[in-house]
Amino acid sequence: xxxxxxxxxxxxxxxxxxxxxPAAAEAPSEVTRRTxxxxxxxxxxxxxxxxxxxxxxxVATRKDPVIRDAAGKPVWNTAALSFAKGPAPATVNPxxxxxxxxxxxxxxxxxxxxxxxxxxxxxxNITFVxxxxxxxxxxxxxxxxxxxxxxxxxSEHVAKLPVSAMIYTHSHIDHFGGxxxxxxxxxxxxxxLAPQGFxxxxxxxxxxxxxxxxxxxGYQFGFGLPAGPEGTMGSGIGIGVAGGGRSLxxxxxxxxxxxxxLMIDGVRMLFQLTPGTEAPAEMNxxxxxxxxxxxxxxxxxxxxxxLTPRGAVIRDAKAWAQGLTEAIDIFAxxxxxITSHGWPRFGKPVIAEYLAKxxxxxxxxxxxxVRLMNKGQTGPEIAAQLxxxxxxxxxxxxxxxxxxxxxxxxAVYQFYMGWYDGNPAHLAPLPPEEGARRYVEAMGGGxxxxxxAQAAFAKGDYAWAAELLNKVIFADGANAVAKAxxxxxxxxxxxxxxxxxxxxxxxxxxxxxxxGVKAEDVTGGAELLGLLPPADFLDVLSVRLDPAKxxxxxxxxxxxxxxxxxxxxxxxxxxxxxxxxxxxxGRQATLTVAYKDLLTALFAGQPLAAKLASGEAKLEGDAAVxxxxxxxxxxxxxxxxxxxx
Length: 645
Hints:
Layout: E1 16-18, H1 30-41, H2 49-55, E2 58-60, E3 66-68, E4 74-77, H3 94-103, E5 107-110, E6 115-119, E7 126-130, E8 135-138, H4 144-157, E9 163-167, E10 192-195, H5 198-204, H6 210-221, E11 253-255, E12 260-264, E13 267-273, E14 283-287, E15 292-294, H7 317-330, E16 336-338, E17 345-346, H8 348-373, H9 379-383, H10 390-393, H11 405-417, H12 432-442, H13 446-458, H14 462-475, H15 480-496, H16 500-515, E18 519-521, H17 526-530, H18 534-542, H19 547-550, E19 555-561, E20 566-573, E21 576-581, E22 589-592, H20 595-603, H21 609-614, E23 618-621, H22 624-631
Parallel strand pairs: 8-9, 9-10, 10-11, 15-16, 19-22
Antiparallel strand pairs: 1-18, 2-5, 3-4, 5-6, 6-7, 7-8, 12-13, 13-14, 14-15, 16-17, 19-20, 20-21, 22-23
Helix pairs in contact: 1-15, 6-16, 7-8, 8-11, 12-14, 13-14, 13-15, 14-15, 15-16
């Protein structure tokens, strides 16, 4: 797959990567050492079943752990977490260290006589089911290169078979982005199945706000952080995020009803739709004849995110819990449980307890957040006190490696109540920089506040130190002393974090404070963006219009896409871009062009002049209209400031 450099494509996992720079190692403080030692004392370390489950059925792995693209550039390292051996160092929360030890085992695993998984070759798992004619592939990973590497591994050690069917459990890119890596092996009549709403969700969920999501995804996943005891410990649901090419083989059918039963290449399969849980379009998959259930990403061995830190539409914790209750009933006979991340579970009692206690964690989160909300508590107040009851907190799979109760309780509050807490003092707060400047001035100036932060740091009160230093930095972005101390503060907080994403965010922020922000493009998303319906693409243009550039001007342009058999009219007035289907009267010009050519012109910087000159595109009417529209479009900033003004 060619790598298109769509700088503003807007796909959150394929937008911007921070260039890695070595950072000076920060020693763990005595407070951090004690905090992590205390955390270890409260963990159920005698429960080692996960290690056995994760190792069961291991067949083989790659001789070379580094997976490369066609140009030889590394896109993945299956051994990235191999350093996590022995007791946890003081720079890593012991629970997160143990989780990385279990999660880091990569290779091919035989789950049952007919089901294999390749784990640790990407952030997600790829599952191979032996059909009559070939492999039924479930969730073909993020990147074409990692999917191809997984196929090569199973071909070498089990059987080299064609792909007789492909199934996407849900609409996140780490579960379909590698599909084209298997396209050449796909039989001509192979079905490609997905849940209802998959295609639209897969290509549009992150497009409107994609640049902002992409920047924040760099924090969440620690793009550019080296793996190690002072660096990233993975993503909580995987070793990291794969580079390489993204793609999508479009579904041939989207399933619309729960309890749909299909015979696919000789294998009986049962599908449970779970929309609005972990993804807008998602489904679980059962194999009734083999008593195996695939719970997609609805039951990973960690707390998940109700609101992901990178940004997204808030998920419904109540619906998630209800979906798991339904799954418990539908797959009550399951003796093997697999998921899209993590490792399998074996045994009916083990699975029943796992699903029930996983369900209860989401139900408790929802119900207790709402109970406290209805007693007048705000999101931050609830987050500061809400914890799991011991019966759930002592389960490794309910611990906060990916999502957390602190973050998720605020998401549940926002789901029902929005950002406003009801206090009129917060109706129109000062902008961060102005507010910070006034706070710092009222507290005696930057030196005084930095001294207070230094005293808090020395006592190990890192949360308060971070809050004080944030005010100083936003009051004076050039204050090198405050930024250096804030970087040290964030590293101590990272070392204490049980949550892999929080660790990544703290460490990424620290690196930016020390080194500034430098960004480079990673794989774009031309093929995915091309699947976006033209109306959705025009929605993207509407949020790119800069009213300062458009001023009081107006225009109307017709668009004809012969390859899509669609016509649209775009008008600009009052600083707003409106689009409607069909060609409307009064347009000043009409552009007839292949949809893909307009995409590459606007997002990849390939001018339409050659297409117009060759006659492949045609512009009728006032030729200046198109140029004016393009000149009014703004370009998102892929490296905007987060921890500095």
